[in-house]
Design a protein that fits this description.
Strand content: 25-35%
Low-confidence stretches: 1-41
Largest sheet: 7 strands, antiparallel
Structural class: alpha+beta
Number of helices: 3
Helix content: 10-25%
Order of helices and strands: HHEHEEEEEE
Shape: globular
Length: 169
Amino acid sequence: MKTATFTALSLLVGVSNGFTPPTSRHQYSSSTTTAKYAAEEGHPAVIGWPEKYSEGGGSIDDGTTGPEILSTEFQIQNASSSQLQQLDVENWPTWTTSDKPKWGVGNQVVDKEMPYGELSYVLSGKLEIIPQSTGVPEIVNVGDFVTFPKGFVASWKVLEELTWHYYLY
């Protein structure tokens, strides 16, 4: 895996929580690899991610651009245009709070544990995240990358309706 020289949002799980970054740039390179990875991870959202990425126009086999893990810890980082292009963010699937009452503006979800790793890029909206480990509120804004390692626990409060691109691993 190409080593990133910058840090993205990460959840305070890290290696001590059993997180192991993939050994290649892309987690998925063929239907065989996808099936193998899905069997290892088992979460339906992770299993379905490669297909959603391909449907959005992404190529999991080109090896030159595409999603990669930026950090093993919870972090919020403003994305650069070169990062957006290199990670092929525009072809990642999109998620929104607009049709999910649980995630309505002003609602708070307490002690949500991430069942998988996720790197998100915020297209619109604002979110407050309070990591269980620190209790210190962090604000996620438009243009931010957010890294949520598997096992990260935090309280989430939607401050403005959210839309983001996401990569699950």
